[in-house]
């Protein structure tokens, strides 16, 4: 996976690169194995957890680009 977008499902991102889990844990998503959280978009999860979606997407994309 080269890049993510805010409309992507968290489960798809985790399946493509499990190293991205740390960024979701940092924002307070500790239930990544839950079917509901895996089916959420990045944007929806950020809204629930009060996180700036653009900042998270940029951080994850920087991580992916560094690999």
N-to-C SSE string, H for helix and E for strand: HHHHH
Strand content: under 5%
| SS summary, helix count | 5
Total of domains: 1
**Judging from the principal axes of the Cα atoms, what is the shape?**
globular
Helical fraction: 55-70%
Average predicted local confidence, pLDDT: 93
Structural class: mainly alpha
Report the span from N to C terminus.
Answer: 10 Å
User: What is the rounded Rg?
Assistant: 10 Å
Question: Which regions are unreliable across 5 or more consecutive residues at pLDDT < 50?
Answer: none
Q: Quick one: how many beta strands?
A: 0
Largest sheet: none
Folded structure, characterized:
This protein is mostly helical and 67 residues long. It has one domain. It contains five helices and no strands. The protein has helices spanning 10-16, 21-26, 35-38, 42-49, 53-65. The protein is globular and about 30 Å long. It starts with 9 loop residues before the first helix and ends with a helix. The mean pLDDT is 93.
């Amino acid at each position: 996976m080269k890049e993510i977008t805010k409309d992507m499902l968290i489960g798809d991102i985790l399946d493509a690169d499990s190293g991205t889990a740390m960024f979701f844990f940092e924002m307070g998503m500790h239930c990544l194995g839950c079917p509901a959280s895996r089916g959420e978009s990045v944007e929806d999860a950020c809204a629930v957890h009060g996180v700036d979606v653009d900042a998270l997407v940029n951080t994850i994309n920087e991580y992916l680009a560094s690999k």
